[in-house]
Amino acid sequence: MVGYDGSLEARHAVDWAARRVAPDGKVVLIHACRPRHGWLAGALLRTAQERRDRGGALIDELFMDGDGAMFDVRVESRILDDEPVRALIAAADQHGAQEIVVGSHHRSDLDAIRGDVAAELVRSAPVPVCVVPLDGDGD
For 85-104, what is each residue's pLDDT tens digit? Predict the structure, then answer.
């Protein structure tokens, strides 16, 4: 299970997860299209349909621009109209995920105060959470 938001960090996490999955396994991409409470992005895409359309475009872009290990494994994608942490935890439960993989954004101190998705997942997910740094292989 990989959280995907269209960022370079998320793309790196997808590639890392695809390299790591067992030959008979699959990678499930989850795009949570409802922004976290308090984020300005919520004002930009007000309707659920606008958020889902944007999420679909991000996933399509990943498949069009993607390369590497992602094309060597089975990949499914889901666009969920929920906040990222809730969406990833619910999807992990629904799909019987063995772990949740997210990219590390290394955002500002303000995000550390509000809490970021990776830290919240580590505290509350029912399965292991792997946070993949952009500047390393994560191996």
Answer: 999 999 999 999 999 999 98
